[in-house]
Specification:
Layout (H helix, E strand, L loop, with lengths): L5 H23 L26 H15 L5 E5 L5 H11 L1 H5 L7 H10 L27 H9 L6 E7 L6 H6 L2 H5 L6 E8 L9 H4 L2 H10 L3 E6 L3 H8 L6 E6 L25 H12 L7 E2 L3 E2 L2
Parallel strand pairs: 1-2, 2-3, 3-5, 4-5
Antiparallel strand pairs: 6-7
């Protein structure tokens, strides 16, 4: 039995599946959003643009953090790898946050049709997080600023808790590395609490990330040198994630290890952007895409009449 309750763990896992499905749908589909008939070439967008590789990890982090901190009105989430925007948008859509600023993003089939049809489309939603998105303050391509932004939110607000997800390629930037020093500057009763989380998925756009190739001890000692206590979350187990969050640690630095492209058709840097590039005219890839979408059993999580069942 889970240490935090079976129902809570099941709820987290269902949310991740739903968001993973919506990520893939945003990237690929222009019709047939509930797979009510076999996929055809006409169901696929003619131009595929976006990033899949980091999405599952973002969904894992977001679902677990919201399950743990979601009842706290002073909790905030900062996303570093903004190119994983389909994941952020899926979560904001399910929570109803997107509908608050865009009335067409209703939490029903019409809303699914809207966010998928408008994703990475002229006069629609960009492929990266942008200031038009609720709570987003920077363009998603500006890697490196997430940790500094999180500390900025905490400055002078002792009531706040800010979790910040940092890409492993992002941590290689000078800005991100320099921001690790901010823990010392803001460590005081007058400021809020920042919870950094490194998404260690192994690869950047076309090459391995440095920190994924370093030994665990070397990475941990670097973080300890900045005053943090490393906490490893190995894999996407909700039970393990909740257990890590429940540890009473003064200055935790979470390291979430998931494969790049996990739950998709391939892994590593090949999954960074669009894993299946020809489903609009390649029968084999169209079949792969259909199997990929079906693997999430989305219709167990969404009812055409009642909406989301999670």
């Amino acid at each position: 039995m889970s240490s935090v309750g079976i129902s809570k763990i099941e709820s987290i896992e269902k949310r991740i599946r739903a968001c993973d499905y919506l990520c893939v749908a945003q990237l690929y589909l222009r019709n047939n959003f509930l797979l009510e008939h076999p996929l055809s070439f006409d169901d696929i967008k003619p131009r595929l643009l976006g990033h899949w590789g980091t999405c599952h990890g973002i969904n894992v982090a977001y679902a677990n953090l919201m399950a743990y901190f979601g009842d706290d009105p002073n909790f905030s989430f900062v996303l570093g790898p903004g190119h994983g925007f389909p994941a952020l948008q899926a979560n904001l859509f399910i929570d109803g946050e997107l509908e608050k600023v865009d009335r067409q993003a209703t939490r029903d089939l019409n809303g699914i049709r809207y966010i998928c049809g408008k994703f990475s489309w002229p006069d629609g939603f960009p492929s990266h997080a942008s200031p038009a998105t609720p709570t987003v303050i920077t363009e998603g391509g500006e890697l490196g600023y997430a940790l500094a932004n999180a500390y900025g939110v905490a400055l002078g607000h002792p009531e706040k808790t800010i979790a910040v997800l940092i890409g492993d390629g992002e941590l290689e930037t000078a800005t991100a590395l320099a921001s690790l020093n901010l823990r010392d500057l803001l460590d005081g009763a007058k400021n809020g609490r920042v919870l950094p989380m490194l998404h260690l998925n192994g690869y950047k756009i076309s090459a391995p990330s440095i920190y994924a190739r370093r030994g665990e001890r070397e990475l941990n000692e670097m973080l300890r040198g900045f005053g943090f206590t490393p906490v490893i979350i190995d894999g996407d187990s909700a039970d393990a994630f909740q257990a890590a969050l429940s540890q009473e640690i003064d200055a935790p630095f979470y390291i979430m290890k998931t494969e790049k492209g996990e739950t998709g058709p391939n892994r590593g840097y090949l999954a960074h952007q669009i894993p299946l590039k020809e489903p609009a005219y390649n029968h084999a890839e169209l079949s792969q895409l259909e199997s990929w979408l079906k693997s999430y059993d989305f219709m167990e999580l969404f009812d055409k009449e009642r909406g989301f069942l999670i």
